Amino acid sequence: MKPTRLPVLLATLVVTGASACGTAHEPGGATDTDTEPATDSEVAAATPRLALTHDGGVMVVDVASGEVVADEAMEGFVRVSPAGDGRHALVSGNLGWHVLDLGSWGHEHGDHAHHYTSDPGLTGVLLEAAEAGHVVAHDGITTLFDDGTGTITVLDPDDLADGAPQVSTAAADEAHHGVAVRLVDRNLLLTVGDEESRSGVRLVSPSGAVLTETDECPGVHGEAFAEDVAVFGCEDGAVVVDGRLMTKVASPDAYGRIGNQAGSEVSPVLLGDYKTDPDAELERPTRVALVDTRNASLRLVDLGTSYSFRSLGRGPEGEALVLGTDGAIHVIDPETGERVDAIDVVGRWREPLEWQQPRPALHVVGATAYVTDPDHDRVHVVDLDRGRVTSSLDLPHTPNELVANAG
């Protein structure tokens, strides 16, 4: 059966209610259940926490103590993404995106900050979707893409602290495995495709007018920002979107696919994976791509070790970080492509054939990197400034995906 198409015009934004308990909702709507309000407590210092998925649910782990402070059962394969407010995560499940409160956050006040904790766990808020896909948090706006219907849901992540957020929705022309991002100028960037193929990127105004688009991005997948410039991966390079200007960056190979990216607010260079075999059951690449958004150029860096799609990250100074199958985080200068350091973290590993299966995964917050170790049911905490593992936390479940906050 083909997915149901919502009768919504492309980029027509419709504000929906903030909450509606016990009623039916279109995909993209927000629902909540009756939950007791969390008790907030001010604490002396930041309390970083992790959200880690596993076969059977998602757990919240306190980094300082190593304690599992919440373990929520969920059916099916679940994924986790940052919600964009530094406190919540969005857990993709069978019904849509479930809101997970890590129960720690902070507020800056000039030369100091105040830090808080509360009870962690699922909040009961569900952002419904037929097939919950990409989550993009950028410039204080979070945009969700429903692969099953093409529905795009936009919200202010700060609203999640108060329950079900107010959302606005739009829709792509056809459902596909896509991605979208609402920009601060209220324009909408989104991929173009259908169930069979994906071909390009489009920029649409709030009124629905197409401002600019390109069809020169076959197999478009993923998005990240290098400073304030968006980059979309293609099977033959990338597309750089700077304002209303879209520029194609060609791969040196006829098939040179960039499908996963990691951007930095302090670097104009984007880090991407790089694959060259369109017929491989699973290609284990050893090269990564550095896309310079200033001149639309692409540089390839050979690591001498393979990696996976969960291996990419960025350091506090914009360093390009890649977790290799040799067990080390490889640190690359994005300006020169020079590998400047390698931090040993886990043992050697091999990427499994099924992408849903656990493998070491990298997530970076500031100068701290977190690396899962599914072979030993652990997660390692890495100080990037000192270039070493500072602690290792034992887990009751084998970890898969992770999201961290600064607390």
Features:
407 residues; five-stranded antiparallel β-sheet; 37 strands; disordered N terminus
Question: How would you explain this protein's 3D organization?
Answer:
The chain is mainly β. It has strands spanning 14-15, 30-31, 41-43, 49-54, 57-62, 68-73, 79-82, 88-92, 96-101, 104-109, 112-117, 121-128, 132-138, 141-146, 151-155, 167-171, 180-182, 188-193, 198-204, 210-214, 221-226, 229-234, 237-242, 245-250, 261-264, 267-273, 287-292, 297-302, 307-314, 320-324, 328-332, 339-344, 362-365, 368-373, 378-383, 388-394, 402-404. A hairpin with a 4-residue loop joins strand 35 and strand 36 (388-394).
The averaged pLDDT comes out at: 91
Helix fraction bin: under 10%
- CA-based shape: globular
Largest sheet: 5 strands, antiparallel
| Percent in strands | over 45%
Taking all Cα atoms into account, the compactness measure Rg is: 20 Å
Total E-strand runs: 37
